[in-house]
Amino acid sequence: MDIVVITTIVASLFLVIGVAEPLAARLRLPFSVILAGIGILIGVAAVFFLRTELTDALNPVAEAILNLPIRSNVFLYVFLPTLLFQATLGMDLRRMLDDWVPILMLAVVAVVAATLSVGYALSWVSSIPLTACLLIGAIVSTTDPSAVVSIFRSISAPRRLSRIIEGESLLNDAAAIALFGLFMGFVMMGVPDPKLGDALARFPYLILGGAFTGWLVARIAVGMMSFFRRHELAQLSISVALPYLAYIGAEQSIGASGVIAVVAAGLTLNLTGPGRLQPQTWINLRELWGVLAHWAGALIFVLAALLIPRLLEEIRIGDIALVGVVVVASIFARAVILFGLLPLLTALRVSPTVERPYRVAILWGGLRGAVTLALALAVTESFRVPDEVQRMVGILATGFTLFTLIGQGTTLRWIIGRLGLDRLSPIDDALSRQVVAVSLQKVREDLARTTENYELSRDVVRSEAKRFGERLEGAVKAADDSQDIHDRDRITLGLIALAGHERDTILMRVRERTIASRIAEQVLSNADRLIEGARADGRHGYNRIARRSVKYGFGFRVANILHRRLHLSRPLARMTADRFEMLLSQRLVLRDLGGFISGRIRRIHGKRVSDLLSDLLSRRIEIVETALQGLRLQYPGYAEELERRIIRRTALRLEEREYETMREDGLIGDEVYTKLRAALAQKRSRAEDRPKLDIALRRIELVRQFPLFSGLDARDQKRLSRLLKARHANAGEVILGRDSVAKSVFFIASGAVEVEAANQTWRLGRGEMFGQLSILMRRTRRTEVRAITPSTLLELDEARFRRLLSRSKSLQQAVRASAEKRGIAPDALLADVERARQ
């Protein structure tokens, strides 16, 4: 085909894409449904004009459309990697981890269930071999997220619902295409009745091989992008090459899943990119991929829809009934997972609750699209697949796709409305009315001052003021109608608003580069969790998420074990440095929230709610300060280095703002401005580098901080620091158990522990010790000591402790005080130590 004709058709398709979006908005239909409809009309029109005798004038155009070089490889190697890669870049991975169980059930278990359900249902009602039936099941089990997510984003649907749909569809394609590859191989080899065990045995290799390939290629790409950190276009170009190299590398090199490789590459870049690239570069990269994915998604729908008339050319009456079987079997398998397995997992406390309206929306939102058609096209192109199998795959896959797009896609918005997912909750509705009333009152004050400076005619001002006053009066009345909101709900509304403002403050700090982009994702995720925690469980949910945000997670515990037992310190150093920076960023943001509470929150919800929120904020600041203080004690000086880095970055941002102002005022030209910006970029590049954290415990510095060792001279302190063994205890960890033999004494360098003995409980903090009485009394320990915060302990064995005690007056005084507190005669204990020394 002539290159001019192809170029003209492609340009026309882009014109169709441009028209389809506003048309979809006007008709209130999913964008993908409109694209598919237009593609089908173009394909039907081309077939009609080519075969009609009414005119031959349009035959060249019809032939060009029908003979476009559209092959399945174009979809799978060009468009699919683009869509998958962009989806991973736009995902909030930390938030999706909260719903990883339902996402995994829908993306993997539901795919396998739909494949088996459709496959066996077809084999029972048709003469198609079981292998081909299972192949059809794998093809129709892929869902298309674009149609559903576009609807959810256009209405007030809960964010969690969109996240579940996006996560499912991303991994869903990977699992379905992997199964497709398995059964396609059986069909081409002529195996009529495959052993599912043998087929599924290859599944882990496809997944793990693809994941490793994608991770490896992404790490190499991120390293190159970091090396070219001053050349943004080079970084963007490398990112464009990344998904295609990962896909081809996995498919052609090791025979693994290319889809999994692309997903793994995208996830790796999503997690590591913000910390290795400049903030603006990361923003530009995501915007570039957003545009590429929009074009790829639109083109794949239009081009796939063009093929529908061709795929349905040989349809028969009986085939329509088989399409109905596919529809029923697929929806049944999805319903079993949503309404059977997920509630069971929730009852077993394995999965978070997915509300029934959410599950109904997910069930009806399982639309199929271009990927299904592309896989069907791959089957029809293979000469090793029998003709009848080709025909059935093309008809059944295409018919099922049309049903989901036309039947489900056009009614999905109505279903969501019937479920009430497009409406605000009563609390949010009340909040919106009060926000409008308060905002309009502030607007009236500002507008009155502004119109005075305009020197407008009084009649115009009076007329518009009257009109605005009527609107304000209506807003105030609507707000007054919601005055029966309980105080508990007002507190919930205030907490949601506070967490939302916290998120906005974080984004502002990121733009100003006061907060590093590698930390921004984590603190933004915490703010989102605070919003949903407050929305779900009010004050308790907010406090629970706030406490969780400063806790040491599972990854930190693993890194700690690697450091202590295998001497692999890099993971612990990186995670500890991230924690330092995260806590500093949290403290920076939290201290900015007081004005929002005393201003906006107080005007909307009153003094009582604002005072309560101020108290909650003070407690959060105290929690963050405590966690930060624990790190300061463990790694003295590092927090100060990070604070200096924040100040330097803030100063550079202010300097850049001054240059921008001078250029806008005409004080400097573009040449001078460019030169100043280049010099500033070099300084900023140096300021972006985070200081290296040495996680080696400075035991000598900790020893000097202990009041218990103040009586020792410098030489004895240094000798003692070599004898002490450092130990890190996570919150909740049992340090000393009941009925155990006393062997060591522990000194608390940072953190706190809880001691329980004889139905009594007390807490010890920094600078205190425990275990000494059991050693001195020479009896089995009857107490249990548990860390209540992440703590750093210094351990000293019994013999060395006795020698130290014999010559340290301050340590003797501490032992005497602890013995008196427990009702034990201290003189007898110390006399025993003195006799042992002599």
Automatic annotation (TrEMBL):
User: Where does this one sit in the cell?
Assistant: Cell membrane
Q: What keywords tag this UniProt record? A: Cell membrane, Ion transport, Membrane, Sodium, Sodium transport, Transmembrane, Transmembrane helix, Transport
Q: How does it sit in the membrane?
A: Multi-pass membrane protein
SUPFAM superfamilies associated with the record: cAMP-binding domain-like
Report which superkingdom the organism of origin falls in. Bacteria
Which Pfam family name is an example for this entry? Answer: cNMP_binding
Q: What is the protein name for this chain?
A: Cyclic nucleotide-binding domain-containing protein
